[in-house]
Amino acid sequence: MTLTLETPQLTTGSALDPADPYERRAQTFPQLTHEQVARLAMFGKQELLPSGVILFDRGQRNSDFFIVLDGAIEIFDHGEDCQPDVFIVLTARQFTGELNLFNERESLVSGRTRGETRLIRVKRADFRRMASIETDCAEIIMRAFILRRVGLIRHARGAVFLVGPAHSGDTIRLQRFLTRNAYPHRLLDTETDPDADGFIDCFEIKADQLPVVIDSRQEVLRNPSTAALADALGLTETIDPAHVYDVVVVGGGPGGLAAAVYAASEGLDTLVIEGEAPGGQAGTSSKIENYLGFPTGISGQALSGRAQVQAQKFGAKLAISRDVAGIDCCGSPLVLQLEDGGEVRAETLVIASGARYRKLDLPDYERFEGQGIHYAATAMEAALCGDEDVIVVGGGNSAGQAALFLSRKTRHVHIVVRAPDLSATMSYYLIERILGSPSITLHARTEITGLHGGDRLSGVTLTDRATDESQLLQVCNMFVMIGATPNTGWLAGCLTLDEKGFVATGAAVGGSAASPYATSLPGIFAVGDVRAGSTKRVASAVGEGSVVVSDIHRFLEAKRG
């Protein structure tokens, strides 16, 4: 194999771990055949360059795609001393790039020639055309790009430093944003990590400024908003306010991503607007086991990550960390107002904005959000719990999956539900596992009646409604999964909603039975959890998102004559 790895420094796991992409070199850094190189060469131009030429630099947008013919390309990061740290060397018939080639985000690493190098340069626009035509090569390239991003995350290459107390609500918020957007980072816990002190002293960071993010330019972002962090890291993409998209999808959950994949793959100019990260609520699920085609299950983040890449492969654009604040639906095109003051224009709109987490009505509840109260149970949250008891509130499938996942990561899990059992709201296979687990206790007909603690949650009072007896559990982390309310406030009276605030569609608004996703206004459709009467399942949302594209085509054809 022609790949050379130079002192890869692992941040987690082992160098011999077969799950490490850098140990799967034939897939992560594949060598194309001579015949494949000859085909791909028709999309680019051959160049002969001297040693040390920078081909792409960290922070650069719209970098090109390169195939080595002779010589080598060094892939490097900048170490703490700001000197180039070469960690991969690509040689004959290997290629550069990772997921940023499918979008307009900033490159995470840099590349330069090592010695005199003959290569093929494929411009960004030609790369997309190449990927759509040479499908066998595109499959190899796509797999490699995904594995390379996993490798960057695993080894903290191209990473930023997040410095702050690990249990702080703002530290958790920023870490969750970075994790869900697949951005490499290293957390330095100021409560336990001795390296954190060096950063605090070097950058003269005060305690009340924590957490901070230190980016590749050594700039310190002091407790930034997620939108500000996204802008600083180049995660956001430029939106032309004068451009009119064929389809704008509001919400990057399963339904929204499915609509984007099918719309873009059928040639529609497509934009997805997502407030935080692709995946929606499903993206926070530790494992989805009843989704068709994944017999061993798949995490919500992995599923949404694949869907995001798939949409971008077909040309859809994703505007991350951009919330929609309002809509002007009186004319054509439709105009969406963004929270940052920007505007987006669309001929058709797919509302896939899902729902927001429902909260418990308890004193001090808001004070403990992010300080012990969580709405997702992933590896990041589990790492905060250690060898402790935790509480999961809720009786749906998301609560069941969370309880099973946490039972393997914590000392004991207490499930709290108001119902007499789980049969009405949870799948049978989950109930069987929960009732059979010695690490899980079900508290039926029980409610949370009190929260206790200082800066962080330290105890929860449970009250059995059958006996009216209460008990105090010493827990520092509680996972609230009691359903959600529809995220429709931004519609501002533009559409007909049902009594609970979900978007009414189909026959409920006098629409045709052939278009169950049409809303009360032509050209606006709703799919997934936000739609009144929808089945709140990942598979259902994906199905609705894919099917609605045929309705969009019919609308656009009629509109354009």
From TrEMBL:
A molecular function (GO) term: oxidoreductase activity
UniProt KW Lipid biosynthesis keyword: no
Annotated InterPro entries: cNMP-bd_dom, cNMP-bd_dom_sf, FAD/NAD-bd_sf, FAD/NAD-binding_dom, Ferredoxin-NADP_redctase_2, RmlC-like_jellyroll
Biased composition (Polar residues): 1-14
Pfam families: cNMP_binding (PF00027), Pyr_redox_2 (PF07992)
Claim: DNA damage is one of the keywords in the record: no
UniProt domain Cyclic nucleotide-binding: residue ranges: 28-130
PROSITE patterns assigned: CNMP_BINDING_3 (PS50042)
Annotated protein name in UniProt: Thioredoxin reductase
Organism of provenance: Methylocella silvestris (strain DSM 15510 / CIP 108128 / LMG 27833 / NCIMB 13906 / BL2)
Biological classification of the source: Bacteria, Pseudomonadati, Pseudomonadota, Alphaproteobacteria, Hyphomicrobiales
